[in-house]
Amino acid sequence: MWGEDNPQEQALAEQAQQHRNQEAEKALADLDRAVQRLSLTDVHIPLTRTVVGTPRDAFRDHLQSGVGTLTMICLLMVGSALSLGQHSVRWPQGQGPKFANDGGLSLYVIGPVLLGLGVGTLWTMSRTRIGGDPVRYALIQHLTRAVNTCAEALELTGTARDRALRRLDKQCRKAERRLLRAHRARGTLGFISPRRGPAALHAAQAAGALRHDLVRIDVALDEALPSLGGKLLTICESYIEGRLGALLPEDQLRDAVPVSLLRRRIKEVVQLLFTIAAGFGGAMSANHAASAIGLPKDYAPFVAAAGAILGVTLVWGWRQVTILLELWPFKG
Q1: pTM, two decimal places
Q2: pLDDT at residue 184 above 60?
Q3: Per-position b or e across 10-41, b if 16+ CB within 10 A of its CB
């Protein structure tokens, strides 16, 4: 009956809650043990301990997977039903693409729309404050796991240490991605705010400081691991306090290279590769078009050059193309 508690369901819920409580207690104990191993007892992290020791919210924990599952179910059911039905959207008098005349227009139109809405919802819930505490404090979970691994790597030797260091690289890489999105997930900044730029820049500097200590592991492991663990804990506490512009003190950012600069260089290389591909594609497309309209072959080089310039302009931008044209050797 509605409104009556099912004893079996209530027992399962209590068991699940007890399991989450035990996980939180274990995570807090592991963090305290790591702080002791790294000799970081002078680092005060009351807020971090509170977040780590708080059991996960069952509803929020499964919300994203539920939305994803419902999205795929709706996509399959609605798309298939409409595409197989004979009263879907049709072209007048049976004219148009074959999939439209066969009743498949709905699958090609409604399917991508539903999929786009589902993916957009999942992306928003996993990267912004709309996702609630699981997204807001996901950075803390990644950072504290890295602290635990720092302590393990400091105590272990041989191949066990090698495995721990590889795991630390992976954990720091995940934490770095979360750190660079901290201004989106924390929930203290508006979607349009002049504070977002400085906060994002400072996060890039903090990520660079973490990379600096991570690289020093191969030079002075006994010094780098405690230093890295201390910075991770400092970022945790500052993030929970909402000090997105002071995740690390200035003296710990002196030798740090902002990660965003490295990402910009990679982006420039990728953009250059796309530009070269666009130039070749534009030249080949122009040659095919010239052959199709019967243009004399004497104009082929000029047509190819125009197509290449057009392709490069679409990808690279006109300003960069004009700068490149200034270097043309036959320019009068």
Answers
A1: 0.64
A2: yes
A3: eeeeeeeeeebeeebeebbebbeebbebbebe
